[in-house]
Amino acid sequence: MTVAMAEEEVNYASVVFKANKSPTAEAKKAEETVYDEVKVKNEPTKQIDDTKADEKAKNRDGHFRQLACCLGILCVVLLLAIIGVCVYITAFNHTSEQNQLKENLTILQAVNLNLTNINNKLNSTVNNLTVQLDNLNKSYTALESNNTDLIAENQKLKTQNQKLKTQNQQLETQMKNLTDMLQDMETERNELNVSRAQWSIDQYCPIDKAVRQCKSCQAGWLQDESSCYVIVDARPPNQTTWDEAQADCKEKISELAVANNAHEKEYIRGKSWSRPEVNGYWIGLRVVDGKWTWVDGSDLTEISWIQPATPTEGHCAISVRDKGLKSMNCSETNAWICEKKALSLTPP
Distance (Å, rounded) from C-alpha 228 to C-alpha 254? Predict the structure, then answer.
């Protein structure tokens, strides 16, 4: 009874194989528990049981080896998967970085282009400013030179101003002297006018037997209509040129005789006495700007009155009794006839 119980007694043992690394979910599913029965028999049956046990042990070893191989293969696959994932993540990150770098490169190229344009504009601006600076330097140099010239000119003007002040003082002194002289001359003129008035009265209104009798022409003058004539019957060497004769007439408050019509021409010719020592008498007719012109500014209208009629510069006219008017060089000497307006004695 005891032996039977010993043969039937069975002991169970559990064997669990675990990997070093933490298993994945699939590994956990693949994990199995292997149970093996171990029977303890009595000594007589020990040999038979050992044989069976050896076979079972061999079978277990084969199972264990297969399981270890599967587990090793699984680990290698997991390792390769992990490496692939890492490579993929690395490649993905590299691709993302490359894309980001390309995008950054594009942005940097755009920024570089913009900076290049800005740099070109700045260079152009610098060039323009350089040109403007050169122009300003030239202008400054010119202004400085002009300023120097102006300073020198200002100094000259100051010197001239001082001289002008001195001259002004001298002119003021001279003006005062001239004013005094003018006052003296005015006084003398007034006195002279009085003397002339008295002279005119004496000339035109001489006293005859204690009675003043006025005439249209002063003593020694011949009257014809509204004119008074004086015949200056000068003999050589007292004869004069045309200009000197005109000056003498002006001293007599008259001019060389003018014939505005045929009557006056005939009157003048009738008074031009013919003498061997007298060639003729200067009258107020000469050549001016290629024309025969009277001293009163009128032109000779009757060219036939004078011989030769062609005007010659530097020629003046003389009156000859038997020949009329004759052209002669103004520098020659002759007697002359003066004329002035007669004094009107009748009331207007």
Answer: 9
